[in-house]
Amino acid sequence: MFFCPTDRDGNKVTSVVATPGPASQNDRPQEVSYTDLKVIGNGSFGVVFQAKLVDTDELVAIKKVLQDKRFKNRELQIMRRLQHCNIVKLKYFFYSGGEKKDEVYLNLVLEYIPETVYKVARHYSKSKQYVPISYIKLYMYQLFRSLAYIHSLGICHRDIKPQNLLLDPQSGVLKLCDFGSAKHLVEGEPNVSYICSRYYRAPELIFGATDYTTKIDVWSAGCVLAELLMGQPIFPGDSGVDQLVEIIKILGTPTREQIVEMNPNYTEFKFPQIVSHPWHKVFKQGTSPEAMDLVARLLEYTPAARISPLQACAHRFFDELRDPNTKLPNGCSLPPLFNFTEQELSMDPALASRLIPDHIRNEQAKSDELDLPSSSSQQPSPSNASSSIPSTSATPAASDTTDAANFKATSSGNANSSTANAVVASSTGMN
């Protein structure tokens, strides 16, 4: 790394030798220069900077994390595999030294996207309003698309929450970010259960399961959907144990069969017998039956009973997005929603007829007839009679044990005999 004096505006320029993000056979390093470096976030993982690329004036986010020389960085390995319109793009990566001897930092240069679902939801909450339902549909649909894609590759994000859902307010595009906890799950290989931010943690994680599946992401997405509909977290537990109490308050006491599916080691666990709370009493009056039905299909105790992300995209809750007359408030088309690849559809090819609307198929057919490049990745321009969406303002990879120090989960997900008593005690006052 070396420093150029200044750019034409007098700002210090940093030049580095970086490797392009997407994995390819021609991973030739190249010089990349950036300026206007400033800190925009930090945590146990490291620091995130905002910068501007000198050649293109494009804003980027640079995530700087301490690299353990003994292992390949799992986040980098995963990010280099991902190419999807609803996943933040890795543009480059490079290494830099630290203040201490032999310290090495990995720097991920990512596309910069200004907003998050968390910020948007907080804006409405402070104004004592709810996020418009059309926006909830647009955001959640794109989240499910991103999950369908990574799950088709065997990758589990393991930290789905509103803070990790980036938004471009102009285009309406949502992109999933922060793959610092992500992992390629392999059947038979154990994983840490102390993962995922507490409010969004699946019950099998609270039970200490280590053989979980990508369905933990589906649970988390269900929590995000419920939160957007309610204006507050649906399961606001104060601890890992209290998190389970909050879940039981709404879903009721899990059956023995459901407990076996979550973690067979807890079949003798004695729960207070709580009856499930009807969904129409959980959500505000006027919440659509379709919305409540989707939440119910996502927030199932039994992981295998939860619908897949692709099935969620096909749910009737999202039918408004498949209407060719729906548009953004600025008059522009919706962002690309139906440009499914074979990889995405591979999890459930039979859903293709439901997922790709007729007007998109017709556009594709016309394009094929004219022998033009496929237009299936674009939405058709909306007609005048349109429904408008409301506006808003060869080294081994690191093991789970190695990564555990960087996990941002806020309380332990492992249940044991002492926590069993705490659940019973905490549950006696539940309504």
How many extended strands? 12
Q: What spatial order of strands do you see in the largest sheet?
A: 2-3-4-5-7-6
CATH secondary-structure class of the largest domain: Mainly Alpha
The fraction of residues assigned to DSSP E strands is: 15-25%
Provide the fold topology.
Blueprint: E1 2-4, E2 13-20, E3 30-43, E4 46-53, E5 59-66, H1 74-81, E6 90-97, E7 104-111, E8 115-116, H2 117-126, H3 133-152, E9 155-156, E10 165-168, E11 173-176, E12 183-184, H4 203-206, H5 215-230, H6 240-251, H7 256-262, H8 279-282, H9 289-298, H10 309-313, H11 342-345, H12 352-355, H13 358-369, H14 400-403, H15 417-427
Antiparallel strand pairs: 1-2, 2-3, 2-6, 3-4, 4-5, 5-7, 6-7, 8-10, 9-12, 10-11
Helix pairs in contact: 3-5, 5-9, 6-15
Would you give an account of this structure?
With 431 residues, the protein is an alpha+beta fold. The protein folds into 2 domains: 80 residues, Phosphorylase Kinase, domain 1; 239 residues, Transferase(Phosphotransferase) domain 1 (Transferase(Phosphotransferase), domain 1). It contains 15 helices and 12 strands. A 6-stranded antiparallel beta barrel has the order 2-3-4-5-7-6. Strands 8-10-11 form a 3-stranded antiparallel sheet. It has a two-stranded antiparallel ribbon with strand order 9-12. Helix 3 packs antiparallel against helix 5, helix 5 packs antiparallel against helix 9 and helix 6 crosses helix 15. It starts with a strand and ends with a helix. The C terminus is likely disordered. Keywords: ATP-binding, Kinase, Nucleotide-binding, Serine/threonine-protein kinase, Transferase. Pfam families: Pkinase (PF00069). This is Protein kinase domain-containing protein.
